[in-house]
Amino acid sequence: MAEDEDDDLETVVAGAVTMLTLTIAFGLMFAGVPYFWVAFPVGFGGLLPMAVGAARLYRRRQETDSRPASEDDDALATLRERYAQGDLTDAEFERQVERLLETEDSATARQEVDRERERVDREQETE
């Protein structure tokens, strides 16, 4: 349903630019301007692609703004849970949070958390 609404936005933008281009071009033609034809390539070749591209950019930004950051929050929630259970010391927790904030994406962060969990588990087994 959201995709249909996005397509509707692009359709409305394209229709508005088309009507504007035709109105200006034919208005210039009826006014006797000899270079009225320039409105067609400017409108359809320049303005129309830019307007549709702007509508798509708007759609993409809306999608990224509305997308929940569950993966990033999940890694931090795992760290908090392990800290609350006593699996991590204060220093380990702080180091992991800093590492999590330094990572570029949630997949890398998840790998770091898993590696640290395995390291802590190995240390606890040797004790």
Rg over CA atoms: 28 Å
Q: Based on Cα principal axes, name the global outline.
A: rod-shaped
Measured between the Cα atoms of the first and last residue, the distance is 56 Å
SSE pattern: HHHHH
* Helix share bin: over 70%
Alpha-beta classification: mainly alpha
Biggest sheet statistics: none
* Whole-number tally of structural domains: 2
How many beta strands in the DSSP annotation? 0
Task: Describe the fold and architecture.
The protein has 127 residues and is mostly helical. The protein has helices at 2-30, 39-66, 70-85, 90-102, 106-126. The protein is rod-shaped, with a radius of gyration of 28 Å. The mean pLDDT is 82.
Gist of the model:
With 127 residues, the chain is mainly α. It has helices at 2-30, 39-66, 70-85, 90-102, 106-126.
Question: How does the SSE layout of this entry go?
Answer:
Layout: H1 2-30, H2 39-66, H3 70-85, H4 90-102, H5 106-126
Helix pairs in contact: 1-2, 3-4, 3-5, 4-5
